[in-house]
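Progress report, Aim 2. The chain analyzed during this reporting quarter is listed below.
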Amino acid sequence: MLSKVGKFEFHIESYTCDFTGKLALPVIGNFILDAASNHANARGFGYEQISKDNVAWVLSKLSIEMLDYPGFDQNLTIETWVETVAHYVTQRCFRASDSKGNIIGYIRSVWAAINMETRRPINIATWHPDLAEYIAADMECPVENFAKIPAVTDVKQDASYSVSYSDIDINCHMNSIKYIEHALNIFDLSVFKEKYISRFEIVYLMEGVFGDELNLYKQDITGNESIIDTKKGEESVCRCRIVWKDKKEV
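Predicted structure tokens for the chain:
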């Protein structure tokens, strides 16, 4: 049996950095999805294996907490493990370390397995009972469990976009990281010059598909906390909570 914890190395290239020279948060999202995919594939419950059952993993919730962001030409190590397996969801956690081995972030995520024809969740414990064998009970993730992100009301629309070719992934719906990119695009560059994202939470409520017209609404809770509600018509597709910290605090 393979180790319950997977460990993956990433090198920070120029095209993965934002204008400040630091690794962009959506790229961290891509890295953790890559780590999750490789960990699952090696243990028999990755895309290649489960697609034969006409099943796909779908990200339901994601919470990223970062103390620091690595910069250009540095390395990032991501460790990942399964924390819990319930009937319809499984929680997967991640730990991020810099080139010197310092822990700079933790990530918590919730996944559902859906039938690709019905688009409905399936019972994970019945479908893949062996997944529970990889629960790493000795690993700790200090990221708090997910709290409800309220809807944004009584504010003007901040941005809109039509779901296009580059937004669609292999499961024929909008890629989970694309929602993050569009949410961050609401903010002016001056915000990223002065602050960094300490905590980013997102809950996915329904699928976005090609041609959908999505509208984004931002509500500032405090000077360092914002909620972004992405809607299709009156229905929320996803909601984000962003907590900022001043860079001088690092």
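Residues 106 and 142 are 7 Å apart (CA to CA). The beta strands are 6-11, 55-66, 75-85, 90-97, 103-115, 159-162, 195-204, 213-222, 225-232, 235-246. These observations will guide the mutagenesis work planned for the next reporting period.
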